[in-house]
Amino acid sequence: MQKLEANVREAVKELGLKATIEKVEDFKDIMAYGVMRTPALVVDEQVKIMGRVPSVEDIKKIFIKKEAFIMGCCETQRNNTCCSTSCGCEEQNYEAEKKKIIIDFMYLDLSICTRCQGTEDSIEEAIEDVAKVLELAGAEVVVNKIHIDSKEKAIQYRFESSPTIRINGKDIQLEMRESLCESCGDLCGDEVDCRVWVYRGKEYNVPPKAMIIDAILREVYSDKKSTVE
Asked: Most buried among 59, 62, 67, 85, by the most CB within 10 A?
């Protein structure tokens, strides 16, 4: 039970959700949900998992689907058509204007540097994976690819390490780490350090797609609410 609660709290934190988390221990209350095996996860009065401890990633997927479903119902209401579900969307305020998610991808080289190339690919794959959720949530992604090719640009964009990803002005990784980049070293004929990404305690030369998705969804759901029991 403690592991499940910890995973739920971590999933909520990583997605940036505002959630009420309640640990239900009374046997009668548990049985009222029709739960026959514990631990179990209930989201908005619906049993999602029972008899096992889901991973943080599994829980995040449940939350993402729930948010996408609610936003889909709200779109139906907004178009003056019948919503046949009881999702509670009539109580939600639909934002008329799309929420902009601005991704600034700053790099030194895309022709040779494998880390910059890999980062570009990860950004594109991450956006593709969450495209439907973004659409239903009323969010629009704008990607700015910024080639830092002068000292003036580096100063202008407060550029410290290549590559850099900022979402709505915030670096997706506050801690700055670098290591020797062989491809850039071959290009410059000297030793060159490029950025290292840290995600879930591990280091990567290219930011994992999941890391970028987490950062995007934190911005998308930063003002949204979810209830977890």
From this structure: 59
